[in-house]
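Async update (no meeting this week)

Hi team, since we skipped the sync, here's where things stand on the single-chain job. The sequence we agreed to prioritize is pasted below, unchanged from the tracker. I ran it this morning and attached the output directly underneath so nobody has to dig for it. Comments welcome in thread, and please keep replies under the output.
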Amino acid sequence: MCSTSLAELIICFEQNQITIFAKEFKTKYIRRMKQKVNMAQTPKNEKSQKDGQVRKQRVFNLIILDESGSMETIAKQAVSGLNETFQTIRNAQKEHQEQQHFITFVTFNSARIRTVMNRQAVDCDKKLKWTDYRPDECTPLFDAMGRSLNDLKYHVGNEDVVLVTIITDGYENASREFDGRSIKRLVAQLKEKGWVFAYIGTNQDVDAVADDMGIRSRMSYEYSDTGAECMFNIESSSKKRFFDRLHREGRAFMTEACYDYFSHDESEVEEAEKEPDIVWDVKDDDTSSSAKEENQKECKQTIVESNTQSVSTDTKGEADDDKKSIGLLQRIIKKLTLMLITFMIATTYLLLQR
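Output:
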């Protein structure tokens, strides 16, 4: 009698285990499918319930630029590149009329952290131009980030888009208000709200610095006139892709764990190989036309190589996700098989006892 009761208990236990594993697999599968459906069905813009008109998607562009003494070497490229970035934002607003762009532009060194533009609305009919750049002193990167992010977050709503771009040429060495831990914590809090961060650096281990701040999207560049020029062109191209994707898909893609601001898909890489999406605006009276053409070719090659590397990284990430899903399914099948065998043994034992 005791043996029969034990066998019945084994069967009951195995049945419960099968139910638990089946529910776990079903929950994870449904969650993944919902994520894909939400990304596919996210509207490009919203309509006001009061008047039925399209509500503008507010996009806040926060740009934090190093103005320390070491930036003097590439000061000309910094001014030219930032003006090209402003033009890219202006063009995006022209092309995507449902978007309303705002620019907050901050420069920093140990003498001052200066807000050049503070949530300035972009006017399609007015060209933005900036020339007041005087590199000097040291690099209080954490203080510049902490102040700028905290100032902006109180003016941003849940449905707004925020793109933060940090550009520097060296390590943090002069902050007094914020440290690495507080910045990483602040970045994590804002990423949970959908903010997108991009870190661009040189003369440093860019991957290590970006990891320490919790920023996935990062780019390193060569510390030279040509390297800075290429970097700003790649950054402008990335901005254009970001705004185009926002127009097509809405905000959902920004919260994807694997999203990288600088990445492309394969079709975009092929287009870049044919004709890079760059507007050249480098004015140098001493540079010949042949030298400019050669410079464009070198930068074009840099962009294509960067895009190809990003594609391989994205493909690898997708492959890893697939492997994890397959591995989970294989473990569940193995467990179910063992449970079925145990169930059959227990059932046979009961029949023999009777």
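Quick observations from my side:
DSSP finds eight helices and eight strands in the chain.
Helices lie at 2-41, 75-95, 141-153, 180-192, 206-213, 225-249, 266-274, 289-353.
Reply here if anything looks off.
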